[in-house]
Amino acid sequence: MEVEDLAILHRELKNVRAVKEATADLERMAKTRVLLGDDFDILSGDDDMTFEMMTRHDISASGVVSVISNIVPGPIAEMTRAILRDERDKATQLKEALDPLFKIVTVKTVEEYEGFTVPCKFRNPVAIKTLMNGLGLPSGPCRPPLGRMTPKGMGVVRQAIRAVYERNKEVLMPIQDYYKVNLKERIDNDEYWR
């Protein structure tokens, strides 16, 4: 849907008052703000772009429809609240702590098999469900036609959670406390990542 279509809908139907923006096109989002005004909510649909979307004055996103909040809902909510309260230092600190997780919403690898080199892309929810299962959180398998990640893809996911654990363990502690899992053991033990 074009921004102009959204503007027409908003003008004619007052209950059309928000959009989940997942195009990664910041200029389109700025255009949305210009055409739809300040009484229209723009929500980030890309975790890794939320900070910029919310802090850019020409976009002024209101929040996020977050994939990573399946893992760390508290820190995501805390980051967005800090941005809305203009607590930039706190928001930046949380963004930097969560960055490795933001990068795994889509995991890209290059796999080799049967004499071929093939680029692979594991889109949401594959990497997130892989992470949840690896950490011992309830998530179940992906529905067909989505499948499992390759070992190389799982390695990218494990490296991301390991980086967060080593640098900013506090954002992950609610998982350990609530689900009664030993995060270090879950991250390090290959048995959980098969």
Topology readout:
Blueprint: H1 3-12, E1 18-21, H2 26-36, E2 41-44, H3 50-55, E3 63-64, H4 73-84, H5 88-102, E4 107-113, E5 116-122, H6 126-135, H7 151-168, H8 173-179, H9 183-188
Parallel strand pairs: 1-2, 2-3
Antiparallel strand pairs: 4-5
Helix pairs in contact: 1-2, 4-5, 5-7, 6-7
Protein described:
- By secondary structure, the chain is of the alpha/beta class.
- It has two domains: 1-65, no CATH class; 102-193, no CATH class.
- Helix content is 49%, strand content 12%.
- It has helices spanning 3-12, 26-36, 50-55, 73-84, 88-102, 126-135, 151-168, 173-179, 183-188, and strands at residues 18-21, 41-44, 63-64, 107-113, 116-122.
- The strands form two sheets. Strands 1-2-3 form a three-stranded parallel beta sheet. The protein has a two-stranded antiparallel sheet with strand order 4-5.
- β4 (107-113) and β5 form a beta hairpin.
- The mean pLDDT is 95.
The strand order across the widest sheet is 1-2-3
N-to-C SSE series? HEHEHEHHEEHHHH
Extract low-pLDDT stretches. none
Q: β content, as a range?
A: 5-15%
In DSSP terms (H or I, runs of 4 or more residues), the helix count works out at: 9
Helical amount:
40-55%
Count of extended strands: 5
Give the CA-CA distance, first to last residue: 40 Å
Q: What would you call the shape? A: globular
Biggest sheet overview: 3 strands, parallel
Average pLDDT, rounded to a whole number, is 95
- The structural class is alpha/beta
Spatial extent as radius of gyration: 19 Å
| Number of structurally distinct domains | 2
